[in-house]
Design a protein that fits this description.
The protein has one domain. It is 49% helix and 14% strand. The protein contains 5 helices and 6 strands; from the N terminus they run ββααββααββα. The strands form 3 sheets. A two-stranded antiparallel sheet has the order 1-2. Strands 3-4 form a two-stranded antiparallel ribbon. It has a two-stranded antiparallel ribbon with strand order 5-6. Helix 1 (19-41) packs antiparallel against helix 2. Bound molecules: zinc ion.
Amino acid sequence: MNTRNLMRGTDRLSRTAAGADLEALRDLREAIRAVLLTHTTGQPLDPTVVGRLRALALAAPLRAEIGEDGSAAPAALDDNAVARVLAAIASAGQTGTWRRLKVCANPDCQWAFYDASRNRSGTWCDMSICGSRVKMRAYRRRAAGT
Ligand SMILES: [Zn+2]
């Protein structure tokens, strides 16, 4: 997720992938960012994002791996990066970790973070940076009466 840094305008994904893989991984990353933002805001997910994720999943070779206790876990069939990410998401969903993965509510930041707060109310990647900035902006808007 954080291979893209909005504040710095950098994208490290191009260092690890190329061509169609890079395009698919970027598409996946931004679709997941949209999902994680719904974890932060509680807003419904844009149906076009669901469509993009479904299209990516159709092309991803996944299978079920059976554990010694008979449990089933998703696993990527080969070295397909999109499949590996989707398998990790499926595993995270089973443990409850998925809902705690969020994206910072500061639109200029959108850094992905793990919300370790007891009541899952985390909104910012860092309260002292993004939380303060956004609250200060809102305060200035209110003070200006706009
Ligand atoms: Zn942030």
